[in-house]
Amino acid sequence: MKHRLSQLYRQLKIIISRRKIKKFDKIFSLTELNHNFKNRNQQYNYFYHFFWNISPNWLKEHRNYFSKNLRGYGEEAFHAMWYFIFNEIKPKNILEIGIYRGQTLSLFSLLGKKLGFETEIHGISPFTSAGDNVSKYLVELDYYRDVETNFEYFNLLSPILHKGFSTDETMINIIHSKQWDLIYIDGNHDYEVAKKDFVVCSANIRKGGLIVLDDASLYTDYKPPFYSTAGHPGPSKVASEIDFNSFQEILSVGHNRVFKKI
Ligand SMILES: C[S@@+](CC[C@H](N)C(=O)[O-])C[C@H]1O[C@@H](n2cnc3c(N)ncnc32)[C@H](O)[C@@H]1O
């Protein structure tokens, strides 16, 4: 009985959290967003509201597919964040470190397709269940083939997949091979690895390009909702050490923080 009541209470909180809210019911540019909603929780709430009340159905369908059968992590607000970033920045050369089953990588491809611009999408991942000190990936499958299958499900062209750890020499050479427009760092969450990832990526992101660091909002004033967390110590420490002469934090959506190279 107690369990049932707490389940009902949780459901009610979710329904209330998705309602339409007037101050969020408008499309803003990234600059306007940063200006209008200075508080990290307000920025998060804006994107959460956009996802449930304004976003196109195809964005919701993509999230719905990956939120089932352990296909992906993340949050609805992150899908909305990527929609805004792609709509405004239109990144061409894109890299994700840490792919898991391809939720975000396929979203990048879908966004390029739906918003009508060309993308070249690369991903670096071991394609095993390799985790770190704070993450265990329990699904045993052929991750490489699984990512391809998930791309096929959405009728997307295959991405360029690189099998390895981001700290392997061959993978570092791949990161060095381009000036990227957008890099999403979401691989190993241990400080030493996340730090190396940020250092090598920051040397290879073009001026005006974005690095999005996942799980990086501990030690900030962000207070996560009941279904989420502010991230992990490793990436959060990396974020707290970023040189603000080289990067500007232009947005924060939950435990994702968006840094622009200046
Ligand atoms: C949190 S999951 C990534 C989720 C994915 N970014 C998404 O949004 O769907 C982290 C992934 O990074 C992989 N990984 C672990 N260590 C890594 C490393 N050193 N380099 C690249 N990927 C790594 C894990 O095996 C796992 O697939």
Give the secondary structure arrangement, pairings included.
Layout: H1 2-17, H2 30-36, H3 40-53, H4 57-66, H5 76-89, E1 93-97, H6 103-115, E2 120-125, H7 143-153, E3 160-163, H8 169-176, E4 180-185, H9 191-202, E5 205-213, H10 233-240, E6 247-253, E7 256-261
Parallel strand pairs: 1-2, 1-4, 2-3, 4-5
Antiparallel strand pairs: 5-7, 6-7
Bound molecules: S-adenosylmethionine (SAM).
The site of S-adenosylmethionine has 23 residues, from β1, α6 and β2.
CATH class: Alpha Beta
What is the general shape?
globular
Q: Rounded to an integer, what's the Rg over CA atoms? A: 18 Å
Bound molecules: S-adenosylmethionine
The CATH topology is Rossmann fold
CATH homologous superfamily (4th level) name: Vaccinia Virus protein VP39
Main beta-sheet annotation:
7 strands, mixed
Terminal-residue CA separation: 56 Å
Describe this structure in words.
It is a single chain. The chain is an alpha/beta fold. It has a single domain, classed as Vaccinia Virus protein VP39 (Rossmann fold, 3-Layer(aba) Sandwich). Helix content is 43%, strand content 16%. It has a seven-stranded mixed β-sheet, sandwiched between helices. Helix 5 packs across helix 6 (103-115) and helix 9 (191-202) packs across helix 10 (233-240). It is globular and about 55 Å long. It starts with a helix and ends with a strand. The relative contact order is 0.13.
Tag the structure with descriptive keywords.
single chain, 262 residues, alpha/beta, binds S-adenosylmethionine
